[in-house]
Amino acid sequence: MEQLNWVYKNKDFTEDMIGDNYGFVYVITNLITNKKYIGKKFFYSSKTKQVKGKKKRIKVESDWKEYYGSNKALVDHVSLYGENKFVREIIHLCYTKGEMTYYETKHIFAVDAVISEKYYNDWVMCRVRKNHIRKK
Fold this sequence. Notes:
Layout: E1 6-8, E2 11-12, E3 23-30, E4 36-42, E5 44-51, E6 54-61, H1 72-81, E7 86-94, H2 97-110
Parallel strand pairs: 1-7
Antiparallel strand pairs: 1-2, 3-4, 3-7, 5-6
């Protein structure tokens, strides 16, 4: 089985662990500077495809296996230092897009990531309703 370089609960995360989860919240740590980035990523998205003259929705895998965040400074550091100088850790598996947004924002605020020099995060947007969160 291929090495995906994502860690979840101190174990390598594999495709067969996705289950019915929509995506995940993660922390990427720069091992040289110890600077971190908190983000979210979905496993699949829906695309529309023309089939026999009709539009059909299909599920397409995202780039989550190779993903290193959307923050420009982080992406620049990954290019500069190399992927092997970063640890990618899944901190929360989520069943819905709203749940991903909620937990990403919760983690960002819990550590003051937007105002801390210890994090790459420089902005946060959140719009979540109570019914977006799956009850455990």
